[in-house]
Amino acid sequence: MVRIRAFRAIEDIESCYRFLEGHTKILEIYGVTKVTSLSPEWVYNLGTIVVMVENQDQTKVYGGARIQMYDGSLPLPIQTAIGQYDAKINTMVTKGSAEICGLWNSREVTGMGIGSVILGRVTCALIGMLPIIKTFMLCAPVTVKMCASVGCVMVKELGNNGLFYYPKDDLIATAMVIPDPETIVHAEEHERNLILNLRKNPVMNTIELTGRGPLEIFFDLKIPEVKIESFYVL
What we know:
By secondary structure, the protein is an alpha+beta fold. It has one domain (2-137, 202-230): Gcn5-related N-acetyltransferase (GNAT) (Aminopeptidase, 3-Layer(aba) Sandwich), CATH 3.40.630.30. The chain is 26% helix and 29% strand. The protein is built from six helices and ten strands, in the order E-H-E-E-H-H-E-H-E-H-E-E-E-H-E-E. Strands 1, 2, 3, 4, 5, 6, 7, 8, 9 and 10 form a ten-stranded mixed sheet that branches. Helix 4 crosses helix 6 (189-200). The longest helix is centred in the N-terminal third of the chain and has 17 residues, at 13-29. The N and C termini lie far apart (43 Å). The mean pLDDT is 92.
């Protein structure tokens, strides 16, 4: 069994640094050392929601993701990543914007869909429960299809039809956005139903059929109500 929980970063600083440590180690394996979402500033930001995948007693981290809500002060990771190449991203990010970022999984759970399908579904469930009007993502080629399945569309106005060389010159990233976090009308019907079910039942057990067999998951996605006025500084 794995446990997937969501929490505000400022309410569990220790877990945030465990998240950062795991994410950094995975990126280093692939020779990636410059990723904007690795900056520890988000740990103390009031607009940060963290999703962690752990073992049942929360002693081991298998992966995670973040939802970074724009606070008017700290740029979203996508702004820092591609703003130097296309400044239009800075006018697109407005009050009520957010980004799903920092998505990763350990090698221990490779093939279970945790770092792609499951975390994509969970984060999309959460953005509909938060004061968010649009959500950006900067996707690696292997995650573009997954992102589209949960409601993302390419931001073709940016870069080369949405494409950028990031985080290295030999890697391509795609700028995508969920323009309707509450309704996610662009999501595939199957995924949309699963996302809406998570919103209705944020605390539940389920069995996920993965590439390595059935996986029991305990979801604990209940977070305190967050109002944009509580963290937006401008």
